[in-house]
Amino acid sequence: MVTLSTTSQVPNSMATPAHPIKNPGQVVNQFTITEEAEATETLKLVQQEDISELKNALKDYDMTSISSDDLKKIGSQLYRKGLIDSRAFWLFMDGSRAVDAYGFPTDTHVKFNAIALFNETLEGYVDLFKSNPYVARQEGASDFMKGLVTANHALAALSYFATSSNNKLSVDERV
Hints:
Largest sheet: 2 strands, antiparallel
Region (Disordered): 1-23
Order of helices and strands: HHEHHEHHH
Number of helices: 7
Shape: globular
Number of strands: 2
């Protein structure tokens, strides 16, 4: 009979530090939004109340310096309102991806640049799929990529709304 001590170190630790961000100062990328109409369309916001509510919820957040805890709150709100799908929601919930020895999220209070993290994650998977087409053809790969793109678009819209002072919906509907 073998007896294992429950107080010993975990032999196969799942501990992983936060995903390293190569360009932590990145604030602009191909997903950057500079107009309210584009931001409202990205999140499919049609009611003025929705925009005002979202802007109010985001007023204390900076997407270039945000914690995993805060991303979870924002992602949950967006998902409950149907503004992002489950694939993008997972990326918001995953945050910085730091986990302890048992696989549980850790350092969830530490702030990081979510714009850079989400964009670099997408670029990394694009490179992986280009260099290994077999991986790109695996079941779920295209859904995962769609989630990464959706999350980047949503984060860009959130960043716009978090820094915009205008609360009025102003979509140009000229025919």
